[in-house]
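=== RUN LOG ===
request id: a7f3
mode: sequence -> structure
chains: 1
length: 154
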Amino acid sequence: MQLSNLDSKLILLIEDNIDDERLTLRALRRNNIMNEVVVACDGQEAIDYLFGSGSFTGRDMTVMPAVIVLDLKLPRLSGLEVLKRIRANEQTRRIPVVVLTASEDATQVEASYAIGANSYIRKPTDPAEFSEMILQVAMYWLLLNRTSSERILA
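=== RESULT ===
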């Protein structure tokens, strides 16, 4: 089953671990979720993409992610700092942000929600569980969840 009605919804994956990036992309494809995925390998690259700066200067700023999947432990700019900047900007503050991290630190969970995370998920270590989790995340945020602009149009 290909979820072609979801194809136009962009996913921004902010992940510095190449193995987790590959596992995420593979899980999406295996589950026939063919959405475009933009990968940012550090916090600064993610900010540059979202705000059209740095190497993303001149990108089409009308195209924004339907969901952001954010690791917390990132080089150059931490995941929590990225989340703060997303929530501080009018253009990005309503984009759903799913924190996907290996951290079990309760203070990280609290900080993520306090800053404005929509979800906090601990990365499963088992590849099959990881794949299933990615499917569930994608199905919820791309298919079931409705944004305020979609509600107005519906």
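=== NOTES ===
Confidence is low (pLDDT under 50) at residues 1-5, 150-154.
The beta strands are 11-14, 37-40, 67-70, 97-101, 119-122.
=== END ===
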